[in-house]
Amino acid sequence: MNNQLIYQIALTMIEGVGDVLGRNLLENFGSAEDVFAAKASALEKVQGIGHALSAKIKHPDVLRRAEEELSFIDKNNISCYFMPDKNYPSLLRECGDAPLLIYFKGKCDLNSSKIISIVGTRKPTDYGRSMTEKLIAELAQSLPDLVVVSGLAYGIDITAHRSALKRQLPTVAVLAHGLDRLYPLTHHSIAAEMLEHGGLLTEFPSGTNPDKMNFVRRNRLIAGLSSATVVVESAERGGSLITSGIAFSYNRDVFAFPGRSIDPSSQGCNRIISENQAKLITHASDIIRCMNWEIDAKEVKKPQQAVQTELFLDHGPAPQVLALIRKKGKMHLNQIAAELNIHVKDLMSVLTNLEIDGKISSMPGNTYNIR
Question: What single-letter DSSP state applies at residue 114?
Answer without folding.
Answer: -
